[in-house]
Every structure is written in structure tokens, then in C-alpha cells.
Sequence to fold (229 residues):
Amino acid sequence: MCEELEHCELGTQEYWNNRYQEEVKNYQSHGDVGEIWFGEDIVDRIIKWMKTAHSEKSCRVLDIGCGNGMLLIELYNEGFKNVVGVDYSENAITLAKSIATKLQCNIEFSVCDIIDENIKLSDFDVILDKGSYDAISLSFNAKENRNKYIENVHKILKATGILIITSCNWTQEELIEQFKTHFDLKECIPTPEYKFGGKVGNIVTSIVFKQKINIENYLFYFILNTIHY
Fold:
């Protein structure tokens, strides 16, 4: 069983609203897009995986907790045009829209909380998360919120879809344990390693999950696509 993390301000919507309010001001004043969460190296690794292992550039992609939107902008420039970004911070969405407009990227951004009971999103081929699950894990009622996150991601992802989640708070083994009710491990994206005391570890974990095989899900997906055809 995974031990819960201690809650802190990084798990609050107020913190991220205030942070992105400052980043909006910085962008308007200096053209600074703000922090690339986990760094450009991790973004490059995710995009490289997408290009080589999930080559259908027409796939529908959702970035949860998109922040300044730079991950989707990079994907858009690589030919993935059917991309959507959501964040529960209105200021983050304001920033992402401003940057995308300036860079002439036609990306849909909207305010949405992934743990909302009445979430309206659906039918995505790929869901990306670079730090949002971490923030949820630092919130009050973290376990309940994490479970709702997993349920909602499962619900809005196609039966054949994948979730690419990047975390600095949870190890590969912990993520596999937490997501096992709805997801199976598909692949691990290599991330930078460190060595300490003769042991090798990773500062960041990046995992590709696939929906757990469920006959009802696949029958529904097959029938739906047959009707559309």
C-alpha cells in the first residue's frame, strides 16, 4: 500500500492561480512563457515517444493540467493538430491561449478540473499528464481525489487509448499499484538516472498506461465504430 504524501500549498488551486497570474504578467511584459514543468528534456522524451510509438498524428490528445500549454504547442508543431489542453487555473488557460495565439497554433484550451464529478470531456486517444497527478497527491483528501482522477481519466479515454503520466512524487512501482484498478503498464519512457550509495534511481518517472482489458469496453468501442463506419 502506498503511503500518502503530506499535503502542502502545491496541492491547492489558489497556489496555481497566483503563480500563473504572475506568469501572465511576465509574458505580457517580457514575452517569458514561464517554467517548463520537469524541463525541456522530459518534454522532448514524451514527444519522441509519441512520434515513434504512437504515429497516428490525427489522434485526439488531451493534456491535463496544461499550464502554459508548451507541451501541446510542441506536439502541434510536430504535426499533432487534434490537441486539447485543460487546467483548473483560469490564469493558466489565459497564458496558454496567449502563447498559442502568438505562435499561430490552433489549439483548444479550456478551464476544467479533472476530478470534477460532472466532467464533460470524452473520447480521447491519448491523455498526457506532466505533474497534475503530483499536485492532486499533495491536496487535502488526496486519496479520494487521486481515485476520482483515475476514474475520470479511465472514463474519458477511449478503450484503446493510452495515458502518459510523468511524476516526480511517485515511483514506477507506486504508480502501477495506484492505477491497477483501471490501467495496465504498457511501457516506461526512459528518464535521467542518478546513482547514490551504489543504487540507481530516477528523479522523474514517466509511464505509459493502457486501459485494462475489459470485454464490455471493447465491445462498446467496436459497436460504436462499426455504426460510425
Q: What stands out?
A: The CA atoms of residues 73 and 103 lie 8 Å apart.
